[in-house]
């Protein structure tokens, strides 16, 4: 699976949009971009994934650049409960593949 | 999304004893489950892949005789930490994927093991 690079930490004001970047310059054509988050002392939680089109669900939006070498996860109105470590992972479309976690971005939402 | 239940959520054991952690897939059958370990302030590291009805596949550096994995049914995988030592203290997390292509993985709530 392709390697990803994320900033180690970010701050965001409560109620504002949180934009979390991820670089995956070595992504291959069959690899999807997945985002998970881990709130302290809990298991990771799935947020969203995409291949090349932008995606949106009730939790977040995923913007993938046209060359697919980077993406941005957007939490439109961050709340204190969004404080967590956010992991960007690229994974090939093979159901047997496990997820390989990098360092992630520790997002701190502040009042 | 799928529900994955891990038990116990935390356990304290004495050095030299064994501890069993259960991972249950509550609403679908999982032929494959994954076990991760997470040390404080670090990311999740894959330990092993649990395969229903066959032997688990361990990642490099993970002792298969110390971390026994049993996946006897399509809804249950267990991880037994044998002869636990303080350095085995960690957060253990299981994960399942429903089995279709491109679907997300679901994680248990994790088990915090403290060996004293």
Largest sheet of chain B: 7 strands, mixed
Helical fraction of chain A: under 10%
Helix and strand pattern of chain A: EEEEEEEEE
Proportion of beta-strand residues of chain B: over 45%
The first-to-last residue Cα distance of chain A is 37 Å
Question: How would you sum up this structure, described in words?
Answer:
The complex is a heterodimer of chains A (111) and B (116). Chain A is an all-beta fold and 111 residues long. Helix content of chain A is 0%, strand content 47%. In chain A, the strands form two sheets. In chain A, strands 1-9-8-3-4 form a five-stranded mixed sheet, with no helix packed on it. Chain A has a four-stranded antiparallel sheet with strand order 2-7-6-5, with no helix packed on it. Chain B is mostly beta strands and 116 residues long. In chain B, 0% of the residues lie in helices and 50% in strands. Chain B has strands at residues 4-7, 10-13, 19-25, 32-38, 45-51, 57-58, 67-73, 76-81, 90-96, 106-107, 111-115. In chain B, strands 2, 4, 5, 6, 9, 10 and 11 form a seven-stranded mixed sheet that branches. In chain B, strands 1-3-8-7 form a four-stranded antiparallel sheet, with no helix packed on it. In chain B, 36% of the residues are buried. The mean pLDDT of chain B is 91. Chain A binds chain B through residues 32, 34, 38, 41-46, 49, 87, 93-96, 98-104, and chain B through 1, 4, 6, 32, 34, 36, 43-46, 49, 91, 93, 95, 97, 99-110, 112.
């Amino acid at each position: 699976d392709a390697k990803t690079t994320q900033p180690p930490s970010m701050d965001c004001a409560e109620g504002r949009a949180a934009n979390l970047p991820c670089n995956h310059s070595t992504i291959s054509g069959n690899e999807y971009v997945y985002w998970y988050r881990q709130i302290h002392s809990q298991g990771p939680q799935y947020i969203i994934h995409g291949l090349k089109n932008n995606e949106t669900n009730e939790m977040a939006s995923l913007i993938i650049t046209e060359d697919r070498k980077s993406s941005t996860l957007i939490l439109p109105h961050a709340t204190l409960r969004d404080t967590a470590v956010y992991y960007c992972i690229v994974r090939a479309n093979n159901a047997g593949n496990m997820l390989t976690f990098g360092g992630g971005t520790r997002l701190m939402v502040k009042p | 999304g799928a529900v994955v239940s891990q038990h116990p959520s935390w356990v304290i054991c004495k050095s030299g004893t064994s501890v069993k952690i259960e991972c249950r897939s509550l609403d679908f059958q999982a032929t494959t489950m994954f076990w991760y370990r997470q040390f404080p302030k670090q990311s999740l590291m894959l330990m092993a892949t649990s395969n229903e009805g066959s032997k688990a596949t361990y990642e490099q550096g993970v002792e298969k005789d110390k971390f026994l994995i049993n996946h006897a049914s399509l809804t249950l995988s267990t991880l037994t930490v044998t002869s636990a030592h303080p350095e085995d203290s960690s957060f253990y997390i299981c994960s399942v994927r429903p089995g279709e292509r491109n679907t997300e993985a679901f994680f248990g709530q994790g088990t915090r093991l403290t060996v004293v």
